[in-house]
Amino acid sequence: MAKMISVFAIMLGNLTPDTSKTCIFNDVANQSLDMRFYIQLSCQLGLMGVDITSFSPNQEVTRAQFGTIISRVIR
Do residues 57 and 35 lie in contact, with contact meaning Cβ atoms separated by under 8 Å? Predict the structure, then answer.
């Protein structure tokens, strides 16, 4: 989800990441380098992982979370 929404937000939503955000999560160390990049990117875009310390990369995205993410893309 992080990869899909980040690419969508950059290409179609014309969003740019705020690279000054560090976006450190305590549960992504065992993810691939590629996945960690997109997790950080989605956070720096302000779409996912905002103001939390656990990203929960293996959990399903709820309908409410998906709606919130989409609303952040089209702001």
Answer: yes
